[in-house]
Amino acid sequence: MSISLQKGQKVSLAKPGGGTLTRVRMGLGWDAVVKKGLFGKGKAQSIDLDASCLLFDASGNLADSVWFRQLRSKDGSVHHTGDNLTGAGEGDDEVINVDLQSVPANVVQLVFTVNSFTGQDFSQIENAFCRLVDETTGQELARFDLSGAGQHNAQVMAKVARDGSGWSMTAIGATATGRTFQDLLPAVSAHL
C-alpha cells in the first residue's frame, strides 16, 4: 500500500513487519503537455526532466551527487539508470537506485531533485510524480505528485534521512529555478 504525501509530510521507511529497508528506488515520471498547433492538431513537445540525488553529511555539506553526468556515487551506493530526454513511455522515466545499507555513515541525508534541463517551466509538464519503492518487494512505499504547475522549472522533491537506526522520507515539493542540481543548491540547503 502506497502513501500519497503532501508537502512537508514525513513517513518512516521501516518495513511493516519490522526491520528496515535495505534497497529503495526513487522513480520520476512525467509527460509533456500536448500543445495545440494549427487547425487544433496536437503537437508533442520534447521536455528533458532530470532526476538527481544529492548526498549530504551532518554539517549540510554536499558529500556526493548522482545525476545524468555522474550516474553512480563515488562509493557505489547510489546509481542513476540513465537520462530520459523526453518523458516518453509509461511509468518511471528516470530511476535512481539506493542501497541504504551501503550509504557511507557520514551521509545523513539524500535529497532528490528534478529540473528541466531544456528550460521549460512546469506549466508545460503534466502527470509528474516521484515515488519511493522497496526494491526487495517491488512495493510502492510513498508517492509524491508534482502537480504544482507554474513558472518554475525545478523542484526539490523529497529527502530520505537517517532516523535512528532506520530511514524516513519527507516530501518537500519546494519550487525552484535551475537547469542542473548545482543551480538548486541554495533551495536545497533550506531543507536540510
UniProtKB/TrEMBL annotation:
Looking at the record, the residues that make up the TerD domain are 1-178
- InterPro entries for this protein: Stress/Tellurium_Resist (IPR051324), TerD (IPR003325)
Q: What is this protein called?
A: TerD family protein
Q: Which organism is it from?
A: Actinomadura rubrisoli
